[in-house]
Amino acid sequence: MTWQQRLHNHGMTNTAEAAWHKILTTAGEPRRQEESPLAAPFAELVLVAHAEPLLRPLYPWTGMWELHFSRCTDIRHTWDVPYIGTLGEGRYYVEGPSRNSPRIAETDSAQAAVAMVIDRLPPLRPGLHRQCRGTGCLREDAGRQVERLKTGPSRAWSGS
Alpha-carbon distance 90 to 47, whole Å? Predict the structure, then answer.
C-alpha cells in the first residue's frame, strides 16, 4: 500500500498534514543512485520546520532541496511565504517569497532559517485568495490558530 493510499484511508488526502507526512517520510532519501551531500541537512530542515507550530498548518512542498510553504493545497501554491533552501556543508538560505525576491540571508542552522521565515510570515487571512481556487485554502479555524500562535507568547523560535 502506498503512502497516498494509507493517507486516503485515514481521510488525510490533499491536506497540509498529508503533505507533511509525505515529506517527513521521504526527506533525506537519495534521489539518484549516489547519495547527495544535501540529503542530511535537508532532512534536518524538514524536522525543524515541522516542529514549528506556525508552519504546520501551511502546505509544505519541495523542489531542488528547497522547502516551500503555501496557504493553498491546490497545485497553484501561494508564493507569499519565504522559503528555505539547502546549501552544502549544513548551511541554509532563506529567499522569497517569490523567485524574483532577493536572498534574505544564509545561516549555519536550520533553526535560524526557520526563525527567519516565521519572522516574515504574512498575515494569514482565512478564506479565499486570488491564487487558490478555494478547495484547499487555509481554513478559517487554521488561520485563526496561526494568527493566535504568531502573536502569542509561546513562539518556538525568537529572532533570526
Answer: 14
- Here the cell at position 44 is 534536518
Sequence-ordered list of residues with C-beta below 8 angstroms from that of 107, at least 6 positions apart, any chain: 91, 92, 93, 94, 113, 116, 160
Nearest to 111 by CA among 63, 52, 64: 52
- The 3-state secondary structure of 26-44 reads HCCCCCCCCCCCCHHHHHH
| pTM (2 d.p.) | 0.72
φ, ψ for residue 76 (rounded to 5)?
A: -80, 80
Grid coordinates standing for 36?
A: 547527495
- Is 59 strand, coil or helix? strand
Task: Write out the three cell numbers for 101.
Answer: 525576491
Side chain identity at residue 103, one-letter code: R
What are the tens digits of pLDDT across the range 123-155? 765 554 555 544 455 544 444 445 555 555 444
Tell me the chain's radius of gyration from C-alpha atoms. 15
Cis peptide before 97 (omega within 30 of 0): yes
Residue predicted with more confidence, 157 or 114: 114
